[in-house]
Amino acid sequence: MIVAALVRSGARADVATVQAQWLVEADLKGQSSHGVARLPVLVGRVRAGVLTPNAEPVMTWRSDGVLAVDGARGFGPVVASRALALAVVRARRVGIVLVAISNANHLGILSPYVENVAAQGMVALAFTTSEALVHPWGGRDAMVGTNPVAMGVPAQPSPFVLDMATGQVSMGRIIHHDQTGQALEPGWAIDAHGHPTTDASAAREGAITPFGGPKGFALGLAFEVLVGSLTQSALGRDVHGTLDVTEVCNKGDVFVVIDPAVVTGTAGNLDVSRYLESVRATPPTPESGGVRIPGDRAMKDKDRRRREGLDLSTVSWGAALELAGMTTSEADAASNGASS
Amino acid sequence: MIVAALVRSGARADVATVQAQWLVEADLKGQSSHGVARLPVLVGRVRAGVLTPNAEPVMTWRSDGVLAVDGARGFGPVVASRALALAVVRARRVGIVLVAISNANHLGILSPYVENVAAQGMVALAFTTSEALVHPWGGRDAMVGTNPVAMGVPAQPSPFVLDMATGQVSMGRIIHHDQTGQALEPGWAIDAHGHPTTDASAAREGAITPFGGPKGFALGLAFEVLVGSLTQSALGRDVHGTLDVTEVCNKGDVFVVIDPAVVTGTAGNLDVSRYLESVRATPPTPESGGVRIPGDRAMKDKDRRRREGLDLSTVSWGAALELAGMTTSEADAASNGASS
User: Fold this and answer.
1) Nearest-CA distance from A242 to chain B in Å?
2) Is residue A199 in a domain?
3) Any idea what the CATH number is for the domain that residue B42 is in?
4) What is the ipTM of this complex?
């Protein structure tokens, strides 16, 4: 159904399938701000001519270990998955590969990229920038993206997967709180005058607070200049096209893929799996329900939702139906699940 | 004087000079937990035979872009500086280089490594592990190092330099609070039962809290398994030799050096410098004194202390004198500054 909506907008079935998978994966993992709710923006961008659905990305090996990618305005997940497939093959020989992507659309959630690479026995780092929504520590205006970082490391029974933004919260969540009349948690955002606020409507006029105070701000800023330096992409308030339906997307994306077998000369580090188990087994503090490591909750959510089905908001589903030009019964007949 | 103390313990003058520079640089930048106060531990480690002062590190190119380094129990700054010098030369040709170091001693502060690389026009990332001092989010025991991350990005008038630990605070600072009878700030640490505490003595029996809640914990843990996977180093509570004077140091260190000129095909990204200026110029919130970006304070502190002189604690200075086998007047005669 999501695929149908993308195909109807002009995408080939193969690229529509990849983009749809990324949206559904986000909803499955509980990151609904990057889920099917984004479909109308993507279709809107195609219609406006700022997203070229069947783009042919230009991949250039600048050296044995450096892949520069011009995304040609294509779907982010399509461009990045193709580039990473090349990078994994190359990393087996050269040990470390850098992928620097410009001119691609929003990547969606980062975890599937690093998870896929880690499942192939390799370490992956991912950085991407976004429109300026986060204020500097001590500053009043949004100057930094919510710049997420992701990391995948091979482990048993499943790879270690980190995927986190450097803002306290996503703008999607603030908007959702505003629409449902909920107060924000203290520390999430400031208003247009720079005062901390729990009023979601005031926060939409202000900026998101970086996570972790000055250190979190420092990290988000570091990722912004790292990606900017390696992709020549726009920075700060000049970044557009990740949320709107009018501007060409000018942010950048950086991946590093490393084959530990080349680096260490051995097949893998089983100690990592044992160590992660010991961290999970740390005795809990009196106030907590136990220790969770990155990726555990997302994986559990995904398993549960796969069994029980996805609970997409009525708005997302209705919009998707409309974009696909289908009625509810046609959609039911056409698919057995949200991802088809 | 610090050099003299290291030479007296058996180090050659050249390696003693590099190690001394790293200690003094930390004090100059206000990171006294990594400063001259560490000299007695270093000398103690040499005397105990767990640090080989004149070690010859073994550097092996596993591929064109992967340098594996066996530090042979040498001083951390000596091993890492030599490896990075090779990496910078190589990165000009291959674009990206990974340096994976095992069997070296404590690196000291990370900022000089990435700052030096960035001053040569390259991007640098640095990760290192340390003894388990930080508790998992929701867990009671120290299971993760204070695992710092550093990043250097070329910019004008000086490189962008991030250097931060993933704990709220260093154990050195907690010990200092304990010795001077000061209370900790709320949120810095937990006691042995897992309760948040502001009692420095109780915190020494407990664990440091990760910065930024679950996200900061996630990052510190990610760096632990990243470094472990790429260096086959010890993990968590098995890490020793960064604070004690009895154990061989078995943590690992990872650097990534990237030449943006290879990646982008252009000489540099001036926009980064302009962007950083605009972030500094963000209008301040009503409560703040303005926006500082990473490295600004350290650089300012360093300039001031270079003019006014270093204010080392009496304990550090006395210990250094004793280790050098000098009196105060001999030390004054031998040097015009703390770094000689």
Assistant:
1) 19
2) no
3) 1.10.1530.10
4) 0.95
User: Do A136 and B291 make contact, defined as CB atoms within 8 angstroms?
Assistant: yes
Q: Is A256 within 8 Å of B230 when comparing Cβ atoms? A: no
Same domain, yes or no: A14 and A109: no
Tell me, yes or no, whether A92 lies in a domain. Answer: yes
* Domain containing residue B98: CATH number: 3.30.1370.60
Say yes or no: A12 and A142 in one domain: no
Q: How many domains does chain A have?
A: 2
The residue of chain A nearest to residue B238, with distances taken between CA atoms, is A275
- List chain B pLDDT tens, one digit each, 340 residues: 899 999 999 999 999 999 999 999 999 998 888 999 899 999 999 999 999 999 999 999 999 999 999 999 999 999 999 999 999 999 999 999 999 999 999 999 999 999 999 999 999 999 999 999 999 999 999 999 999 999 999 999 999 999 999 999 988 889 889 989 999 999 999 999 999 999 999 999 999 999 999 999 999 999 999 999 999 999 999 999 998 999 999 999 999 999 999 999 886 667 999 999 999 999 999 889 899 999 888 889 999 998 988 877 766 778 888 888 888 787 777 654 444 3
The reported pTM is 0.95
In this complex, do A275 and B211 lie within 8 Å of one another by their Cβ atoms? no
Q: Which of A141, A144, A151 sits opposite B226 (nearest CB)?
A: A151
Number of separate helices (H) and strands (E) present in chain A:
13, 10
- How close A1 comes to chain B (CA, Å)? 35
β-partners of residue B189 are B197, B208
- The HSE-up count of residue A323 (CA atoms within 13 Å, CB side) is 28
- Tokens 């990740």: give the residue: A242
User: Any residues with CB less than 8 A from the CB of B192 and at least 6 apart, and which?
Assistant: B140, B202, B205, B206
A-B Cβ pairs (cutoff 8 Å, strict) = 285
Give me the helix-helix angle, B111-119 and B13-28, nearest 10°: 100
CA A314, A320, A325, A331 torsion-angle sign: negative
Q: Based on the domain organization, do A72 and A149 belong to the same domain?
A: yes
Where residue A322 falls among pLDDT bands split at 50, 70, 90? Answer: confident
Contact B194 A63 (CB under 8 A): no
Pick from B138, B190, B272: CB nearest A229: B272
Chain A: nearest CA to B156, how far in angstroms?
13
Alpha-carbon torsion B199, B205, B206, B207, what sign?
positive
In chain B, which residues have their Cβ closer than 8 Å to the Cβ of A265? Answer: 62, 68
Say whether both A33 and A157 belong to one domain.
no
**Of B230, B265, B300, which one is at a domain's C-terminal end?**
B265
On whether residue B174 sits in a domain, the answer given is no
Residues forming a β-bridge with B292? none
Residues B158 and B73 grouped into a single domain? yes
Are A66 and B236 within 8 A, CB to CB? Answer: no
Backbone angles phi, psi at B99, to 5 degrees: -115, 120
Contact B272 A228 (CB under 8 A): yes
Which chain B residue's Cα is nearest to A100?
A: B263
Clarify whether residues A147 and A224 are in a common domain.
yes
Task: State whether A32 and A121 are in the same domain.
Answer: no
Q: Which residue segment(s) compose the domain that B6 sits in?
A: 1-54+309-340
- Residue A185, domain member (yes or no): no
Q: Which residue of A has its CA nearest to B281?
A: A139
One domain for residues A12 and A81 = no
Mark out the alpha helices in chain B (DSSP H runs).
2-8, 13-28, 39-48, 76-94, 111-119, 171-179, 200-205, 213-231, 260-264, 270-280, 296-308, 314-324, 328-334
Are A143 and B195 a contacting pair at CB < 8 A?
Answer: no
pLDDT digits 0-9 by tens, A233-284: 999 999 999 989 999 999 999 999 999 999 998 866 679 999 999 999 999 9
CB contact under 8 A, A96 and B100: no
